[in-house]
Amino acid sequence: MMSEKINCLIIGSGPAGYTAAIYAARANMKPVLYQGIQPGGQLTTTTDVENFPGYPEGVSGPEMMIQLQKQAERFGTDIRNGWITKVDFSDDLKLWVNDEKILVCDTIIISTGASAKYLGLESEKKYLETGGGVSACAVCDGFFYKNQEVVIVGGGDSACEEAHYLSKLCSKVTMLVRKDNFRASKIMQERVMKTKNIQILFNTSTVEVKGDGQLVSSILIKNNISGKLEEIPATGFFVAIGHKPNTDIFSPFIEMDETGYIINKPGSTKTNIEGVFVSGDAADHTYRQAITAAGTGCMAALDAERYLASK
Ligand code: NDP
């Protein structure tokens, strides 16, 4: 089988991966970046990004990712299509691309990100694609629903935190929790229960996201005990039922927590394997912002450069 030697391999093409590439390329590390199946990552599914410093007018998510790619290319990053299907770090740092080609690397920067989970409803998908009211990120998109009524699904810490965030912007927030209890910590539960404009509906599931085909106008919900249907007006539908880090292929070798988030050495981007670094959402369930992912991408490239220099 064909094999290629690589000095610095970057896996993933979100803000973390491209920022790592910009730093690695400028440091003459000859980075090779594999884009994965969603080039540009999670930001390609959002509309306007208004909280990334340096864009006073805002920028669309897809546009920003094109600019990041161009910036990485300008300094000579070798950007490739392809999907890493298997790794073997037992001896050296070996990976397979599309199950055929083998890469043997001196350093690897994992920036494979995480994917927001969605309910999987047809109507949810439709309005996610039109950008007309479905979102998995309150901090990103809450602002667009100022003084409007919104619905948020989920009963974990994320849902509580995001409901509370939305309550400061929106006139009313309805939380849909599928069981009769929260999964969130006590303190987070109390925070939402004490907030006047948050209404919590337990034992409730989403049946359909409704609208005019472009914009969301209401949510059809069902009480799981009585079976009763109800339609509640809302222009925004937020999904906060968890994220899944895209780290499965690394699992036998790289240390992770029980959800699959990679564990980095505190204050650095080092993993338990020498020469393998992690940046972005693959190791972060707390902040999950483009700017924090970019920041850790920069750190990973600097850590990788120092590691190579020390060898
Ligand atoms: P969690 O997995 O903790 O919670 C997911 C929630 O979504 C649960 O209430 C779950 O319900 C619900 N859910 C899952 N699937 C569906 C579905 N198909 N339909 C309806 N509801 C569904 O995810 P989080 O993102 O909230 O948190 C992830 C981790 O990050 C946790 O460890 C959390 O503590 C941490 N975190 C901490 C924060 C903080 O402390 N400030 C802030 C945010 C996250 P059910 O309970 O019925 O399974």
Topology (elements, then pairings):
Elements: E1 3-11, H1 15-26, E2 31-34, E3 48-49, E4 59-60, H2 61-74, E5 78-80, E6 84-88, E7 93-97, E8 101-110, E9 114-116, H3 122-130, E10 134-135, H4 138-141, E11 149-153, H5 157-167, E12 172-176, H6 186-193, E13 198-201, E14 204-211, E15 216-223, E16 229-233, E17 236-239, E18 243-245, E19 276-278, H7 290-310
Parallel strand pairs: 1-2, 1-8, 2-5, 8-19, 10-17, 11-12, 11-17, 12-13
Antiparallel strand pairs: 3-4, 6-7, 7-8, 9-18, 14-15, 15-16
Helix pairs in contact: 1-2, 1-7, 5-6
NADPH dihydro-nicotinamide-adenine-dinucleotide phosphate binds at residues 119, 153-159, 161, 178-179, 183, 241-242, 285.
Overview of the molecule:
The chain has 311 residues and is an alpha/beta fold. It contains 7 helices and 19 strands. It folds into 2 domains: 2-115 and 243-310, 3-Layer(bba) Sandwich (FAD/NAD(P)-binding domain); 118-239, 3-Layer(bba) Sandwich (FAD/NAD(P)-binding domain). It has helices at 15-26, 61-74, 122-130, 138-141, 157-167, 186-193, 290-310; strands spanning 3-11, 31-34, 48-49, 59-60, 78-80, 84-88, 93-97, 101-110, 114-116, 134-135, 149-153, 172-176, 198-201, 204-211, 216-223, 229-233, 236-239, 243-245, 276-278. Strands 1, 2, 5, 6, 7, 8 and 19 form a 7-stranded mixed β-sheet that branches. Helix 5 (157-167) links the parallel strand 11 and strand 12 (172-176). The radius of gyration is 21 Å and the shape is elongated. The model has no long low-confidence stretch (mean pLDDT 96). The structure holds NADPH dihydro-nicotinamide-adenine-dinucleotide phosphate. NADPH dihydro-nicotinamide-adenine-dinucleotide phosphate (NDP) is lined by residues 119, 153-159, 161, 178-179, 183, 241-242, 285. The site of NADPH dihydro-nicotinamide-adenine-dinucleotide phosphate has 15 residues, from helix 5.
